[in-house]
Design a protein that fits this description.
- The structure holds two protein chains of two kinds.
- Chain A is of the alpha/beta class.
- Helices cover 34% and strands 15% of the residues of chain A.
- In chain A, helix 1 packs parallel to helix 8, helix 4 packs parallel to helix 5 and helix 6 runs parallel beside helix 8.
- The longest helix of chain A is centred in the last third of the chain and has 21 residues.
- The radius of gyration of chain A is 21 Å and the shape is globular.
- Chain B is mostly beta strands.
- A five-stranded mixed sheet of chain B has the order 2-1-5-3-4, with no helix packed on it.
- Chain B is globular and about 40 Å long.
- Classes of the chains: A alpha/beta, B mainly beta.
- At the A-B interface, strand 4 and helix 2 of A face strand 3 and strand 5 of B.
Chain lengths: 264, 66
């Protein structure tokens, strides 16, 4: 097999993953559909939120629909607005047995859900020091990406567009600069709306894509999950295959010589 | 005694351990975590740590999210 076909794995915190698509567990119309969508997506990592239990306990758990021997759980700190809240949530997740990985969110604004990068850096530093595999959700700022790498992040996860917006990769040039800036994996997190958005992220050279709403909110979530799997694979392969350069004018694909002469 | 669990003031028997509180609330400890007065409680301390009047407790578990 050539270079492009024999791909490497995605490595996070020393663990290797074949799939470069990370999917969520929120907003599905049912847990059965979620389980089928996970299967169709081929994902090996699924995100979960950490929330208060209903009391008295009902015994029901979302983990009844996630085979934890097969999927690696990625707890998030969604809903945290300070570094302190995010760090405490990460500790809770680890104590709950959800593992060492954390999708770190420190939100700065409720309407856009844009990250508070100051809090994000602080929380990344603390959690990385305490042995977490920190995967920070950040904006598409190459300088902050570099600071996060210096702070010990295992990867950076710039947004393509606001969470749940489905607007796609709004600033592919910044994503490209981030890819040139850091040596840790770059995973586009948030903003993907449809398969081509995921493909674009991968064609840019990203190491992975994380999404929830684009699959869970699709009319047919299971079909969209499969579309995303194919898009991530296609985008990755296209990136490694090396696209042609863009030219303003046409270049004929067929030989210019040997064209029959029909002039009378 | 009155304590606050997940934002609700509730009356529970005196002298409960964290383990005792969880079984009183019918919460299985698997894939759950407890914070007692903002500090995460290690599972190894569930049996020995006692709940006191006025304690603020958070009990969490994984839920659907992105």
């Amino acid at each position: 097999m050539g270079y492009a076909m024999s791909d490497t794995n995605l490595v996070l915190g020393g663990k290797e993953f074949t799939s470069r698509l990370i999917v969520g567990t929120g907003k599905y119309s049912s847990n059965d559909i979620m389980r089928d969508a996970h299967e169709a997506s081929g994902a090996e990592i699924v995100t979960v939120a950490v929330r208060r239990v209903n009391l008295p306990g009902t015994g029901e758990s979302i983990l009844d629909f996630i085979d934890t021997s097969r999927y690696t759980l990625l707890p998030n700190t969604a809903g945290c607005y300070t570094a302190d809240e995010a760090v405490r949530t990460a500790y809770l997740a680890r104590e709950a047995g959800l593992g060492e990985m954390v999708k770190l969110e420190v939100i700065g604004d409720a309407r856009t859900l844009f990250p508070d990068v100051q809090g994000l850096l602080e929380a990344t530093r603390t959690l990385a020091r305490d042995g977490f595999v920190v995967m920070p959700y950040t904006n598409d700022d190459p300088v902050i990406a570099r600071r996060l790498e210096e702070a010990g992040a295992a990867c950076v996860m710039p947004l393509g567009a606001p969470i749940g917006s489905g607007l796609g990769i709004r600033n592919p040039y910044n994503i490209k600069i981030i890819l040139e800036t850091v040596s840790i994996p770059v995973i586009v997190d948030a903003g993907v709306g449809t398969a081509s958005d995921a493909a674009i992220a991968m064609e840019l050279g990203c190491d992975g894509v994380l999404m929830n709403t684009a699959i869970a909110g699709a009319r047919d979530a299971v079909a969209m999950a499969r579309a995303m799997k194919l898009a991530v694979e296609a985008g990755r392969l296209a990136c490694r295959a090396g696209r042609i350069s863009k030219k303003l004018y046409a270049t004929a694909s067929s030989p210019l010589e040997g064209v029959p002469d029909w002039t009378s | 005694m009155k304590i606050t669990i997940n934002g609700h003031v509730v009356d529970v028997p005196d002298g409960l351990s964290v383990d005792g509180l969880l079984s009183h609330l019918n919460v299985k400890p698997v894939y759950t975590a407890v914070a007692l007065n903002r500090e995460v409680t290690p599972k190894s301390a569930y049996a020995s740590m006692r709940i006191k009047e006025g304690d603020r407790i958070e009990i969490v578990r994984p839920m659907g999210g992105g």
